[in-house]
Specification:
Number of strands: 10
Structural class: alpha/beta
Helix content: 25-40%
Low-confidence stretches: none
Bound molecules: ligand IDC
Oligomer: single chain
Length: about 300
């Protein structure tokens, strides 16, 4: 339902209560919005009009800023750190001006184990959490998708280093922690949760590939009382391409609706991959019409229009 208030004016600072993300009045809030593509690969989508359209036309209340750590141009590989921090800063500023929530995502992927760049992560999160200490709309996601050697023990060791760094500067900020196997194993986290309050554990799904077996991990974790955030998903294959599976998407949506989960969709990009929200032929970075959206883009829009800002 649309009101004149921005999402942030309506909800204020969020916190985690039981399995829910709640607002200042204690009401459940479901964050929903797009994830950017790798910030260094598609910085053009970090613009005010794009975020505004996401808020007003796509009914989003949040944006996720995906900052890759390695790969070409990554923050810890050969990327220009200052330039990347500037893109993050622009993203936080636009989201704040628009009264939207914003996730700063340390996009762990190819290094597998977040401990590999933990020193860099400590410096980065110290910097951003100081800088945005008074931004009550900023959420920190400390490791996108640990995988392979990135076991839950490694993630725990990493989180035990990074969370105190953020808490020192921004004690009340919500922090999201990735789980093993590309953020699928929330069941492991539920068996051995971290010793911190006000954190959520991330689960990612790509509906054309992740079915009942993965959904059952979410059921297990939720029933054990673990607060889970779907900080990335799509209805395609996990490679970010391939068919869209609407039947599986419906199953994921009914579970997310039942549990009142936040949900972010990958990603703000136009290329030949089906997980991109915009058609390859469309180079606009705002002001899209429906015929410029991919199947995934249309799916996201339709789903978000059913949710409350
Ligand atoms: C993919 C991009 C692709 C890029 C690749 C880099 O779509 O263009 O080359 O990253 O490794 C994830 C990751 C996300 C992936 C996405 C699709 O968080 O970085 O993006 N995906 O494969 N987890 C599951 C799927």
């Amino acid at each position: 339902m649309k009101t004149d208030l921005t999402p942030f004016e309506k909800h204020g600072r969020l916190c985690v209560k039981g399995t829910d993300l709640v607002d200042v009045k204690g009401n459940l809030v479901r964050l929903h919005g797009p994830s950017t593509f790798g910030l260094m690969w598609a910085p053009e989508y970090v613009n005010f009009e794009c975020f505004k359209d996401m808020r007003d036309d796509f009914n989003s209340n949040a944006i996720r800023l995906a900052m890759y750590t390695v790969e070409w141009g990554g923050y810890c590989s050969n990327g220009d750190k200052e330039k990347i921090r500037q893109i993050v800063d622009d993203g936080v500023r636009y989201a704040t001006e628009l009264g939207m929530y914003v996730i700063i995502d340390w996009h762990v992927l190819h290094e597998e184990d977040p401990l590999v760049y933990a020193d860099e992560a400590e410096r980065f999160f110290d910097f951003v959490s100081k800088k945005y200490a008074d931004h009550e709309n900023v959420i920190y996601e400390i490791c996108n998708e640990p995988n392979n050697s990135g076991t839950w023990d490694k993630v725990t060791e990493y989180a035990n280093r990074i969370i105190p760094v953020i808490r020192k500067n921004a004690p009340e900020a919500v922090i999201v922690v990735g789980t093993p196997v590309w953020s699928q194993n929330v069941d492991e986290a539920a068996d051995k949760p971290l010793a911190f309050d006000n954190i959520m554990y991330s689960m990612h799904f790509y509906a054309a590939e992740h079915h009942t077996y993965i959904r059952n991990k979410l059921v297990y974790a939720h029933e054990k009382g673990l607060p889970v955030m779907i900080s990335e998903c799509n209805i395609t294959m996990a490679c970010g391409d391939g068919v869209c599976d609407y039947e599986q998407a419906d199953k994921w949506m009914s579970l997310m609706d039942e549990y009142g989960l936040s949900v972010f969709v990958w990603s703000l990009k136009n290329n030949a991959h089906s997980s991109s929200l915009f058609k390859e032929s469309c180079s606009k970075t705002s002001g899209w019409s429906d015929d410029e959206l991919t199947e995934a883009g249309l799916w996201m829009k339709k789903y978000y229009l059913e949710l409350e800002q």
